[in-house]
Amino acid sequence: MNILVTGGAGYVGSHCVRGLCDDGQAVTVYDNLSTGHRAAVDARAALIVADLADPPKLSQVLAAGGFEAVMHFAASAEVGESVQNPLFYYRNNVANSLNLLEAMKNHGVKKMVFSSTCATYGIPHSVPISEDMPQSPINPYGRTKLCIEWMLRDSAAAWGLGSTALRYFNAAGAASDASIGEDHDPESHLIPRVLGVALGKSEGVRIFGVDYDTPDGSCIRDYIHVEDLSCVHGLALQTLEEGQFRAYNVGTGQGVSVKELIEAAREVTGQDIPATPSPRREGDPPELYADPTKVSTELGWQPKFGEIRRTIESAWAWHRAHPDGFPP
Question: Between 20 and 30 A from 102 (CA), which of 16, 91, 275, 325?
């Protein structure tokens, strides 16, 4: 299959590009490299450095490419930034996705796998989170992703688009051979920040909230390995049907607390990793983890990295080999 991957130079996108190439697919990455890395793009894939905010370029690429499907990762994804600058998020995420969908419609490309998020659920009434729970996002980032899901649903009915939205929980880890991994600037994800302490890049980490109604008082999250995410994207691609919209929660179904994660990182790295209790952050739910029953039943997917220690080991191998991330 001939596939266009938007945002394929980013963290999750680059791992999915590698998985597609391993499966023998023809892959073209479309990325403006604003947050992605040229060095993260698999050498077997073509790279077009361009922006979704450029409709003529999009049209040119889709007209010439002969693409059968699109995997759409390109988006801004920092919750705090979205609160401070919501219009940028609506422009970059929603308006640019509209540009992409219009170009797909105009050039007869009717299949998409979309990188969505569990942030569309907001603060759930209970856990684990299943797909039939209300989607009530509490920040602009989650709202923009939900807006895109609405566009996909409406496009299925209006012009036959077949799409699958994959609502990730916390993407984590790195490639098993430590060749690609997580490199954000600034880094907001917990595992690389914890491992940065082990590498001597910072003196310690903060635990935001130690008085939640959880077994150890810290927040609980579902960490899904990035190679497991790559696998489920491939399965979703194989099962797309024109005129249908589907959505799946993608997580391990197991919650890991912040304190448990830090302790696992200490064991993996052999470093002390000081952690300081800090006040809760506004809007942080005590527990977020997936009910993966639907994706398991319908796509036959099972995560291979079930234990947080294995996920941290893969991340640690990447960060030790690339302490400064990808080359500029």
Answer: 16
89 is catalytic: no
C-alpha angle with apex 212: 207 to 213, nearest 5 degrees? 145
Rounded to 10 deg, the angle between the 11-22 and 226-238 helix axes is 60
For the chain of 328 residues, list the mean pLDDT of each consecutive stretch of 10.
Answer: 98 98 98 97 98 98 97 95 96 98 98 97 95 96 97 98 97 97 93 97 96 96 98 97 98 97 98 96 88 98 94 98 93
Catalytic pick among 30, 89, 141, 212? 141
CATH C-level class of 173-222+254-289+305-321: alpha beta
CA 206-252-184 angle, to 5 degrees, is 45
Dump the DSSP string for 99-152.
HHHHHHHHTT--EEEEEEEGGGG-S-SSSSB-TTS----SSHHHHHHHHHHHHH
Q: Which two tokens stand for residue 285?
A: 């739910």
- Which residues, in sequence order, are bridge partners of residue 163? 112, 245
